[in-house]
Amino acid sequence: MNTNPLISVIIPTYNKAQYLGEAIKSVLNQTYKNIEIIIIDDGSTDKTREVVKSFDDEGIIYFSQENKGPASARNTGIKKAKGKYIAFLDSDDLWLKEKLKRQIDFMEKNSEIGLMGTACYEITDKGRIIGKKIFPVKNEILQKDLIKYNPFIQSSVMTKREVFDKVGLYDENFRESEDYDLWLRIASQYKIANLSEPLVMKRYYRRGLSPAKDKEQLYFALEAKKAAVHRGQYSKWCYFYLLKSWIFMKIPFSLRRIIRIFLLKKKFYKI
Fold first, then answer.
1. Are 172 and 215 members of one domain?
2. 15 three-state secondary structure
3. What's the domain range around 34?
4. Which residues pair with residue 119 across a beta bridge?
5. pLDDT at 27
6. How far apart are alpha carbons 54 and 47 in whole angstroms?
7. Secondary structure of 133-190 in the HEC alphabet?
8. Would you say residue 270 lies in a domain?
9. CA-to-CA distance for 271 and 269, rounded, in angstroms?
10. Are residues 102 and 54 in the same domain?
11. Is residue 1 classed as helix, strand or coil in its secondary structure?
12. What is the pTM of this model?
């Protein structure tokens, strides 16, 4: 067993130059050092290129493509990756310095795990901590909960490179919730896990999602759930969760916001 395997860190970015430098620094500051950083510029029109080039580090690899969306950008990164493991970081999020070390130690000891996330801190656009999200950690619970909601933060996820040979890449037909669709496919073939430690800082914006964007996200999440039931990953009675998601998508946006606020206060994260 290689005790120091290479991790490919994939950072897709689109017009996030104001946050990208801080995200890159959070990777360079990791206590685990055998990494390559693959930055996929998805057609940015700001100073993204200049931010990347300001880092004099041979471990940073920069690719630019025309704007095709985050699923395409992540797929480009996966195809370029050389590591045994792949970790994803959104360009406006941050990692705590022990993030990769904690995850790779766990995954090297538990070879059956194909997908691993962590808890996270929620931060404002200015970087102030405003909350914390903690998800189930054990495979048995996560497998049951995954059809109900997405218990993985994209920027917390580490997976094996071999996983994509078995389940495929991100589905680029998904304009939203492409990560949820992929997690469901991975969970159909591998065990999954979370660490209870918050090792990621996930940025949330005051403006939030627009009503149209919110509805699109819910629609594609519903499509991911539907595909999981259709391929036999979950039993037919799980159509109940699809119906619940469909009803939630149909209610007015203002009411959806109120329901979410209530659920967050109760520490439920299931819609």
1. no
2. coil
3. 7-203
4. 198
5. 98
6. 11
7. ECCCCCHHHHHHHCCCCCCCCHHHCEEEHHHHHHHCCCCCCCCCCHHHHHHHHHHCCC
8. no
9. 6
10. yes
11. coil
12. 0.92
| Per-residue model confidence as pLDDT tens digits over 73-120 | 999 999 999 999 999 999 999 999 999 999 999 999 999 999 999 999
Angstrom distance (rounded) from CA 91 to CA 84: 22
**Separation CA 89–CA 154 (nearest Å):** 7
The one-letter code for the residue type at 190 is Y
- Last residue in a domain, options 175, 203, 231: 203
123, 130 Cβ separation under 8 angstroms: yes
- Look at residue 227 and tell me if it is in a domain: yes
Asked if residue 220 and residue 162 are part of one domain, the reply reads: no
Within 10 Å of residue 211's Cβ, how many Cβ atoms? 13
Q: What is the pLDDT of residue 254?
A: 82
DSSP 98: T
Could you list the mean pLDDT of each consecutive 10-residue stretch along the chain, which spans 271 residues?
84 97 98 97 97 94 96 97 98 98 97 97 92 95 96 97 97 94 98 98 78 88 95 92 88 80 53 35
Torsion angle defined by CA atoms of residues 216, 131, 89 and 24, in that order, rounded to the nearest 10 degrees: 130
